[in-house]
Amino acid sequence: MNDTGTTDGGANSALAFKIQDLVVSFGTGDGVVTPLQGLDLEVPNGQFLCILGPSGQGKSTLLRCMTGLQEPTSGTVEALGRAVEGPNASLGMVFQQDAIPMWLRVKENISFGPRMRGVPKREWEPRVQHFIEAVGLSGRERAWPRQLSGGMRKRAAIAAVFANNPDILLMDEPFGSLDYFTRATLHNTLLALWEETKKTIVFVTHDVDEALKLADRIVVVSKGVIGADMPVEFDRPRTDALRTNPEADAMRRFLLDELESKVTQA
Amino acid sequence: MTATVTRSIRLATAHGSSTQRQRRAVRRATLSGVAWQIIGVATFLLVWELVARQVNYAAILPSPTAVVMNFQASMFNDAGLRYLGVKNPGYLINIAFTVGISVAGWALGSLLGVFVGLLSARLQFVRNLSEPVLFVFGAVPVLVLAPFFLVWFGNGAENKFVLVTFYAFITVAMVAQSAALSLPKVTEEYAAGLGIGRFGRFWSVVLPGTLPAILSGLRLALSTAIAVTASVELLGSESGAGRLIALRATQANVAAVLALAIAVGLVAILLDLTLRAVIRGLLRWQ
User: Fold this and answer.
1) Is 0.90 exceeded by the ipTM?
2) Do B189 and A69 touch (CB under 8 A)?
3) Do A113 and B200 touch (CB under 8 A)?
4) CB nearest to A92's CB, from B193, B208, B209
5) Which residues of A touch B (CB under 8 A)?
6) Of A21, B76, B132, B268, which has the highest C-beta tally within 10 A?
7) What span, in angstroms and rounded, lies between the C-alpha atoms of B3 and B10?
8) What is the pLDDT of residues B214-263, one digit of tens each?
9) Confidence band, pLDDT 50/70/90 cuts, at residue B19
């Protein structure tokens, strides 16, 4: 057992995720809604995957199934070779909304997971300190979340998830509510942490430029299945030069056309 | 380099002085608030004294001075009350009796209320079990229920303790349940994603997340508790401030009635101020 509460055996699996024929249906007052309609997806270990799609196409439902927060109607979701049966410490989550407890100071928030799981302090303390520094929150350890800006609270959430040492990070439009400049800075912070830890990241977004900047691979979810699946092989770090790269521009146009057609059909 | 340092110092000094200015402004506003409160109370007492002197009939409107003198005279012992069969005829001991029962009942009822209210928001069967009782009995006025408790538990401390516990439980349980039901799910899901189990999430997310609402419920329940105890004592009791008020009212001793009522009110305010100070400490994060 490692301190994420999982067995180490699973982390050796070549696939972070293996999803087969995933169907999710909800009964609503007006009938039945089926956001996922037999979706298949494999995510190799260490990959930075962006799930792209307009609203209402099933991308957030897919992420909730991957985290174990949503039980599938049928089909299977395996993480690191084991069926996902509920949220656990090996699948760290970052949400769009402010999810960190507002009643804990920054450092208490970042050490929240390991402390509550009974990890000895000598184990979590150096890691927590490292991620506080890595996300640029040094000197703000004793601040309350309300005293931080939206971007800083997001930094705290990211540091808290990394400090909990999950095998995979799942992020649901984490920077959706932030301004352009804060988002750009947080992209760099996240990429630096990803390159340092080599953890698998599944990142849901509806922003094509964000996906092109971050991802190793982009999949477009449309009508509950994978509509497009493409590798993103531009060199890192991806700077503003990516905007004028003809290959990136062609990819951007393709993805925008894909998204636009789904919105029109919807 | 020197220019930059000088500018930084200037900025820091400006920031420091602006913080001090803000603190001074807050202090001035607080002081002015307290000053106005004192002026308000003093004006009320002055008007009361003047009107009482004009009326000049203590059985209708005793002056504040007469009220204070009455309290002073009967604070520890009152021969008239002893003559009427009151076991402990001092005002203070009877006020302490009323407040003591209220606080004890409030503490027990609130504790149970928090527990059941939060649990009922998370477990459907607890909600089904408790909701009808909470809603039905929460709507019944205390003066309707009090006679039953008097019959069941007698006119000693027990009936008031049980009644106060019951009302504190209902008030706090309803507040806690509604706070837990309206708590955004995202923090609980985030904690689940950190590997924190159901029990851990209850203590580390649900309880602190609902604390602001629960603490407001505790204040409400405390003021209700004192009112309930005093009201039940008016109906029938061996001791307590309410019992003394009832006796003094039959003697048309308005000064004594006012002295006791104001004293109970002041104790309630003191308890509320103490609770507010504790709440301020617990909710620093807000």
Assistant:
1) no
2) yes
3) no
4) B193
5) 4-5, 67, 69, 86-93, 95, 97-105, 112-113, 116-117, 144-146, 157, 160-161, 164, 170
6) B268
7) 10
8) 999 999 999 889 998 998 888 878 888 998 999 998 888 899 999 999 99
9) low
Residue of chain A whose Cα is closest to the Cα of B189: A69
Mean pLDDT of A36-65: 91
The residue of chain B with its CA nearest to that of A143 is B285
pLDDT tens per residue across span B40-77: 889 999 999 999 998 888 888 999 999 999 999 988 98
In this prediction, residues A79-96 reach a mean pLDDT of 92
- pLDDT the model gives residue B30: 72
Choose, out of B183, B194, B202, the residue to mutate when testing the contact with A (most A CBs < 10 Å). B194
B107-149 pLDDT per residue, tens = 999 999 999 999 988 888 888 888 887 778 778 888 888 888 8
B284 vs A144: CB contact, 8 Å cut-off?
yes
| CA distance, residue B239 to nearest chain A CA (Å) | 44
User: Rounded CA gap, B214 and B210, in Å?
Assistant: 6
- In a mutagenesis test of the A interface, which of B185, B190, B283 is the best target, namely the one with the most A β-carbons within 10 Å? B190
**Out of A87, A99, A160, closest to residue B186 by CB:** A99
**End-to-end C-alpha distance for chain B, whole angstroms:** 40
Which 8-state DSSP code applies to residue A146? G
Tell me the pTM: 0.79
Structure tokens at B61: 């409107």
Please name the residue that has the structure tokens 């009350």: B81
* Rg, chain A, Cα only: 18
Contact A89 B195 (CB under 8 A): yes
- Tally C-beta pairs within 8 A across A and B: 77
Side chain identity at residue B34, one-letter code: V
Helix pair angle (A150-163, A180-197), 10° resolution: 10
State the DSSP string of A57-126. Answer: SSHHHHHHHHHTSS--SEEEEEETTEE--S--TTEEEE-SS--S-TTS-HHHHHTHHHHHTT--HHHHHH
Torsion, CA B242, CA B247, CA B248, CA B249, rounded to 10: 90
